[in-house]
Write a structure and sequence with these properties.
Rossmann fold, alpha/beta, about 240 residues
Protein backbone atom coordinates (compact mmCIF):
# COMPACT_ATOMS: atom_id res chain seq x y z
CA UNK A 1 0.00 0.00 0.00
CA UNK A 2 1.22 3.52 -0.84
CA UNK A 3 1.76 5.96 1.98
CA UNK A 4 -0.65 8.85 1.48
CA UNK A 5 0.00 10.76 4.73
CA UNK A 6 3.07 10.59 6.95
CA UNK A 7 3.36 12.25 10.36
CA UNK A 8 6.85 12.29 11.88
CA UNK A 9 7.70 13.40 15.43
CA UNK A 10 4.94 15.99 15.49
CA UNK A 11 4.68 18.52 18.29
CA UNK A 12 1.71 20.89 18.32
CA UNK A 13 -0.71 22.55 20.71
CA UNK A 14 -2.37 25.80 21.66
CA UNK A 15 -0.16 28.73 22.58
CA UNK A 16 2.15 27.70 25.38
CA UNK A 17 0.25 24.44 25.96
CA UNK A 18 1.75 21.56 24.00
CA UNK A 19 -0.60 18.63 23.29
CA UNK A 20 1.19 16.36 20.82
CA UNK A 21 4.57 14.98 21.85
CA UNK A 22 6.72 13.63 19.00
CA UNK A 23 3.75 11.78 17.55
CA UNK A 24 4.35 9.63 14.46
CA UNK A 25 1.98 7.61 12.30
CA UNK A 26 1.37 6.61 8.68
CA UNK A 27 -1.88 6.58 6.71
CA UNK A 28 -1.96 4.15 3.80
CA UNK A 29 -3.93 4.89 0.66
CA UNK A 30 -7.29 3.15 0.26
CA UNK A 31 -7.60 2.15 3.91
CA UNK A 32 -9.62 3.29 6.90
CA UNK A 33 -7.31 4.18 9.76
CA UNK A 34 -8.96 4.71 13.12
CA UNK A 35 -7.50 6.81 15.91
CA UNK A 36 -9.00 6.03 19.30
CA UNK A 37 -8.19 7.35 22.73
CA UNK A 38 -9.56 9.17 25.77
CA UNK A 39 -10.73 12.77 25.83
CA UNK A 40 -7.86 15.23 25.82
CA UNK A 41 -5.44 12.72 24.32
CA UNK A 42 -4.66 14.82 21.26
CA UNK A 43 -6.82 13.23 18.55
CA UNK A 44 -8.60 16.39 17.41
CA UNK A 45 -5.41 18.39 17.82
CA UNK A 46 -3.71 16.00 15.40
CA UNK A 47 -6.39 16.54 12.74
CA UNK A 48 -6.19 20.30 13.19
CA UNK A 49 -2.40 20.22 12.84
CA UNK A 50 -2.67 18.20 9.62
CA UNK A 51 -5.14 20.74 8.21
CA UNK A 52 -3.02 23.75 9.20
CA UNK A 53 -5.63 24.99 11.67
CA UNK A 54 -3.07 25.13 14.48
CA UNK A 55 0.70 25.64 14.19
CA UNK A 56 3.15 22.73 14.27
CA UNK A 57 6.07 23.46 16.60
CA UNK A 58 8.29 20.68 15.26
CA UNK A 59 8.12 17.53 13.19
CA UNK A 60 6.73 16.95 9.72
CA UNK A 61 3.46 16.46 7.86
CA UNK A 62 3.87 14.88 4.41
CA UNK A 63 0.96 14.36 2.01
CA UNK A 64 1.56 12.37 -1.17
CA UNK A 65 5.26 12.53 -0.39
CA UNK A 66 5.35 16.33 -0.27
CA UNK A 67 6.17 18.46 2.77
CA UNK A 68 2.98 20.06 4.08
CA UNK A 69 3.93 21.12 7.61
CA UNK A 70 2.07 24.31 8.55
CA UNK A 71 0.47 24.44 5.11
CA UNK A 72 -2.46 26.84 4.71
CA UNK A 73 -5.80 25.17 5.35
CA UNK A 74 -7.33 26.22 2.03
CA UNK A 75 -4.35 24.77 0.18
CA UNK A 76 -4.86 21.42 1.92
CA UNK A 77 -8.52 21.50 0.86
CA UNK A 78 -7.59 22.50 -2.69
CA UNK A 79 -5.19 19.58 -2.90
CA UNK A 80 -7.68 16.99 -1.71
CA UNK A 81 -7.73 16.81 2.09
CA UNK A 82 -11.10 17.37 3.73
CA UNK A 83 -12.03 17.58 7.41
CA UNK A 84 -15.48 16.56 8.64
CA UNK A 85 -15.26 18.26 12.03
CA UNK A 86 -16.49 17.27 15.44
CA UNK A 87 -19.86 18.85 16.16
CA UNK A 88 -20.86 18.93 12.46
CA UNK A 89 -20.34 22.72 12.07
CA UNK A 90 -22.83 23.13 9.25
CA UNK A 91 -24.13 26.51 8.07
CA UNK A 92 -27.42 26.54 9.95
CA UNK A 93 -28.97 29.56 8.19
CA UNK A 94 -28.41 28.11 4.73
CA UNK A 95 -30.35 25.37 2.98
CA UNK A 96 -29.16 21.78 2.89
CA UNK A 97 -28.33 22.05 -0.80
CA UNK A 98 -26.41 25.30 -0.39
CA UNK A 99 -24.35 23.66 2.36
CA UNK A 100 -23.48 20.87 -0.05
CA UNK A 101 -22.66 23.22 -2.91
CA UNK A 102 -20.17 25.05 -0.68
CA UNK A 103 -18.33 21.74 -0.38
CA UNK A 104 -18.07 21.62 -4.17
CA UNK A 105 -16.62 25.14 -4.45
CA UNK A 106 -12.91 24.26 -5.04
CA UNK A 107 -12.09 24.95 -8.69
CA UNK A 108 -11.15 21.33 -9.46
CA UNK A 109 -14.59 20.16 -8.23
CA UNK A 110 -16.89 22.74 -9.85
CA UNK A 111 -17.22 21.06 -13.26
CA UNK A 112 -18.64 17.96 -11.55
CA UNK A 113 -20.68 19.68 -8.83
CA UNK A 114 -24.03 18.58 -10.24
CA UNK A 115 -22.94 14.95 -10.59
CA UNK A 116 -21.39 14.99 -7.11
CA UNK A 117 -24.58 16.45 -5.67
CA UNK A 118 -26.52 13.55 -7.16
CA UNK A 119 -24.00 11.11 -5.68
CA UNK A 120 -24.43 12.62 -2.22
CA UNK A 121 -28.22 12.53 -2.48
CA UNK A 122 -28.07 8.86 -3.53
CA UNK A 123 -25.90 8.10 -0.51
CA UNK A 124 -28.04 10.17 1.88
CA UNK A 125 -31.66 10.08 0.60
CA UNK A 126 -32.88 12.12 3.58
CA UNK A 127 -30.78 15.04 2.42
CA UNK A 128 -32.51 14.94 -0.95
CA UNK A 129 -35.88 15.10 0.83
CA UNK A 130 -34.72 18.10 2.86
CA UNK A 131 -32.67 19.85 0.16
CA UNK A 132 -34.66 23.12 0.40
CA UNK A 133 -34.91 23.19 4.20
CA UNK A 134 -32.65 25.29 6.39
CA UNK A 135 -29.87 23.21 7.91
CA UNK A 136 -31.00 24.39 11.36
CA UNK A 137 -34.13 22.24 10.96
CA UNK A 138 -32.17 18.97 10.72
CA UNK A 139 -31.84 16.38 13.46
CA UNK A 140 -28.40 15.58 14.84
CA UNK A 141 -28.08 12.53 12.61
CA UNK A 142 -29.17 14.43 9.52
CA UNK A 143 -26.72 17.22 10.34
CA UNK A 144 -23.91 14.64 10.54
CA UNK A 145 -24.96 13.28 7.15
CA UNK A 146 -24.90 16.82 5.78
CA UNK A 147 -21.38 17.39 7.13
CA UNK A 148 -20.24 14.13 5.56
CA UNK A 149 -21.94 14.93 2.26
CA UNK A 150 -20.35 18.38 2.18
CA UNK A 151 -16.95 16.76 2.63
CA UNK A 152 -17.57 14.29 -0.19
CA UNK A 153 -18.50 17.16 -2.51
CA UNK A 154 -14.81 18.17 -2.33
CA UNK A 155 -13.78 14.94 -4.12
CA UNK A 156 -11.26 14.26 -1.36
CA UNK A 157 -8.18 12.11 -1.67
CA UNK A 158 -8.03 11.96 2.14
CA UNK A 159 -11.05 12.26 4.46
CA UNK A 160 -10.49 13.22 8.11
CA UNK A 161 -13.57 12.45 10.22
CA UNK A 162 -13.69 13.70 13.80
CA UNK A 163 -16.06 11.96 16.26
CA UNK A 164 -18.98 11.33 13.89
CA UNK A 165 -20.95 9.33 16.48
CA UNK A 166 -20.84 12.03 19.15
CA UNK A 167 -24.31 12.74 20.56
CA UNK A 168 -26.16 10.50 18.11
CA UNK A 169 -28.72 7.78 18.81
CA UNK A 170 -27.35 4.22 18.43
CA UNK A 171 -29.39 3.51 15.29
CA UNK A 172 -27.99 6.64 13.62
CA UNK A 173 -24.45 5.73 14.73
CA UNK A 174 -24.86 2.40 12.94
CA UNK A 175 -26.01 4.21 9.81
CA UNK A 176 -23.06 6.62 9.86
CA UNK A 177 -20.58 3.78 10.42
CA UNK A 178 -22.14 1.84 7.55
CA UNK A 179 -21.56 4.82 5.26
CA UNK A 180 -17.91 5.05 6.35
CA UNK A 181 -17.50 1.32 5.75
CA UNK A 182 -19.04 1.72 2.28
CA UNK A 183 -16.58 4.51 1.47
CA UNK A 184 -13.72 2.33 2.68
CA UNK A 185 -14.84 -0.53 0.43
CA UNK A 186 -15.02 1.92 -2.48
CA UNK A 187 -11.33 2.68 -1.95
CA UNK A 188 -11.52 6.01 -0.11
CA UNK A 189 -8.71 6.84 2.30
CA UNK A 190 -10.22 7.75 5.67
CA UNK A 191 -8.82 8.78 9.05
CA UNK A 192 -11.54 8.26 11.64
CA UNK A 193 -11.22 9.72 15.13
CA UNK A 194 -13.65 7.83 17.34
CA UNK A 195 -14.14 7.02 21.04
CA UNK A 196 -16.48 4.08 20.42
CA UNK A 197 -13.78 1.44 20.09
CA UNK A 198 -16.10 -1.44 19.22
CA UNK A 199 -17.71 0.46 16.33
CA UNK A 200 -14.32 1.67 15.15
CA UNK A 201 -12.69 -1.76 15.18
CA UNK A 202 -15.57 -3.22 13.17
CA UNK A 203 -14.79 -1.06 10.12
CA UNK A 204 -11.11 -0.15 10.48
CA UNK A 205 -8.11 -1.56 8.66
CA UNK A 206 -5.57 -0.13 11.09
CA UNK A 207 -5.90 1.29 14.60
CA UNK A 208 -3.79 3.77 16.52
CA UNK A 209 -4.37 4.48 20.19
CA UNK A 210 -3.37 8.03 21.14
CA UNK A 211 -3.08 8.98 24.80
CA UNK A 212 -1.28 11.92 26.37
CA UNK A 213 -0.32 13.22 22.95
CA UNK A 214 1.57 10.06 21.99
CA UNK A 215 0.86 6.89 20.04
CA UNK A 216 0.78 4.09 22.63
CA UNK A 217 -0.47 1.35 20.33
CA UNK A 218 -0.46 0.67 16.60
CA UNK A 219 -1.85 -2.50 15.05
CA UNK A 220 -4.01 -3.86 12.25
CA UNK A 221 -7.65 -3.96 13.32
CA UNK A 222 -7.88 -7.74 12.96
CA UNK A 223 -4.90 -8.24 15.27
CA UNK A 224 -5.94 -5.85 18.03
CA UNK A 225 -6.20 -7.38 21.49
CA UNK A 226 -9.33 -5.58 22.72
CA UNK A 227 -8.59 -6.21 26.40
CA UNK A 228 -5.11 -4.72 26.07
CA UNK A 229 -6.50 -1.83 24.03
CA UNK A 230 -8.92 -0.98 26.84
CA UNK A 231 -6.16 -1.30 29.46
CA UNK A 232 -4.03 1.15 27.49
CA UNK A 233 -7.02 3.39 26.76
CA UNK A 234 -7.68 3.86 30.48
CA UNK A 235 -3.96 3.88 31.39
CA UNK A 236 -4.27 0.73 33.48
CA UNK A 237 -0.97 -0.69 32.25
CA UNK A 238 2.40 0.84 33.11
CA UNK A 239 3.82 0.77 29.59
CA UNK A 240 6.18 2.90 27.63
CA UNK A 241 4.37 5.18 25.23
CA UNK A 242 5.92 3.62 22.15
CA UNK A 243 4.18 2.29 19.02
CA UNK A 244 3.73 -1.45 18.72
CA UNK A 245 4.95 -3.14 15.56
Amino acid sequence: MAKLLEIDNLRAGYGSINVLWDLSLTIEEGRLTCIVGPNGGGKTTLLRAIMGLIPVASGQVRFQGLERTNEKTWVMVRDGVTLIPEGRMIFRDMTVEDNLLIGGFPARCRPRAKANLGMVYDMFPRLRERRDQLASSLSGGEAQMLAMGRGLMEEPKLILVDEPSLGLAPVIVDEVMAILDRLRREGKTIVLVEQNTNKALAIADHVYLVRGGKVVMSDTATEVDVDRLHHLYFARDAVNAEPMA
